[in-house]
Write a structure and sequence with these properties.
8-stranded antiparallel β-sheet
Length: 358
């Protein structure tokens, strides 16, 4: 059994490495050609483009691990079955589950490694990739400083402190504008609870002005939204809108807790939080589905058919996941159900295939 397990595991890992390398190469080439016009438009240097690609690869690897695992299982076990190696193992009294045990063990290890990888490597590299794309390639100035609980932004009318920015809805929450005179002395500050981008301008209500006059007195008065000047557009604040891929599980959970205390809706972020635990388990789910598919009726199925089955299964999974995520972000279903439904459905499918006839 030890010899068989080492053999099965070796074939699986060899094909997994080959599939992963091939998928990454295809992904990078397609992404490069898709962004080529932008690189040429901004006269990006080859070094900047190369650094952007290298920092993006950790996220690409995480995204491609499930489909690479699925393809490796189908190809490794499918090839063994096609050449009667699985038949010989079964004739020796070894069940399909025993044959596939090393693959399942490897899938569990891959899931744990993906979780650690997503916590430690992916957030930093993804943030660096966006910085290179925005600052080095597109030549936009880095005007923002992100702290744990707020954002400092160098705007046209002064220094902005922002508690939260929702790029999808075009909403600034907890905006404070610090205006200075020519001697860089604080002239006044304007507190804006919420600013919403509507009809090509910021809709502001409930603003308060605190003016600092000679003698150290502070004059406070309500400020109509029409008197608040905010010349920046939502795209100017894009760099301060962190994607969930740029945050670890702990950072995202702390971010959700801070937003909840401020009364900000965190539905989308809570879906993304559950996804950080659900996605690393996808290789195991794909293995559970792929093992019985690869071991069933193999001699009548060419390798191309196995690859086609893998594409159909993988595509179906990601379509279901995208649907449930969309419903979860919209608040139609609870965040845990949105993140875990696809795993549950395909785990049940894998169990059904295992219990079905050989």
């Amino acid at each position: 059994m030890n010899v068989l397990r080492r053999y099965v595991l070796g074939e699986f890992l060899r094909l997994l490495a080959m599939c992963m390398a091939g998928f990454i190469l295809i992904y990078v080439v397609v992404d490069l050609f898709d962004r080529l016009d932008g690189f040429l438009k901004y006269h990006a240097s080859a070094l900047s483009v190369l650094r952007y690609i290298l920092f993006k690869i950790p996220l690409i690897l995480t995204q491609l691990m499930p489909v690479a695992t699925l393809a490796a299982v189908l190809l490794s076990l499918g090839t063994m079955a096609r050449y009667n190696e699985l038949t010989a193992m079964r004739a020796s009294g070894v069940s399909t589950l025993q044959i596939a045990f090393p693959v399942f063990a490897a899938a569990i290890v891959l899931g744990a490694a993906s979780l650690a990888w997503n916590e430690s490597v992916v957030p930093y590299c993804t943030e660096r990739a966006r910085y290179i794309d925005t600052v080095e390639i597109k030549n936009k100035q880095q005007k923002a400083l992100l702290s744990e609980d707020s954002i400092w932004f160098h705007g046209q009318n002064g220094i902005y402190n922002i508690e939260h920015f929702d790029a999808h809805a075009g909403v600034l929450v907890g905006l404070t504008i610090y205006e200075f005179d020519t001697g860089f002395l604080l002239k006044r500050l304007i507190e804006v609870p919420t600013a919403r981008w509507r009809d090509d301008h910021w809709a502001i209500d409930g603003a308060t002005e605190r003016a600092f006059v000679d003698g150290g007195d502070v004059v406070t008065r309500p400020l109509p939204g029409s008197e608040v000047s905010l010349p920046e557009r939502p795209q100017d604040f894009q760099i301060i809108d962190k994607d969930s891929d740029e945050l670890s599980y702990r950072q995202l959970r702390r971010h959700i807790r801070d937003l909840s205390r401020k009364g900000i809706d965190t539905t989308e972020s809570r879906v993304d939080l559950h996804l950080k635990l659900a996605v690393p388990l996808v290789p195991l789910v794909m293995t559970l589905v792929a093992v019985p598919l690869a071991a069933r009726n193999p001699r009548r199925r060419p390798i191309a058919a196995s690859i086609g089955i893998g594409l159909v299964v993988g595509f179906s999974y990601w379509v279901l996941l995208a649907l449930t995520i969309s419903l979860g972000h919209g608040g139609a279903i609870p965040p845990p159900i949105a993140a875990w439904s696809a795993n549950g459905v395909f785990a049940l499918l894998g169990g059904f295939l295992f219990l079905g006839p050989e």
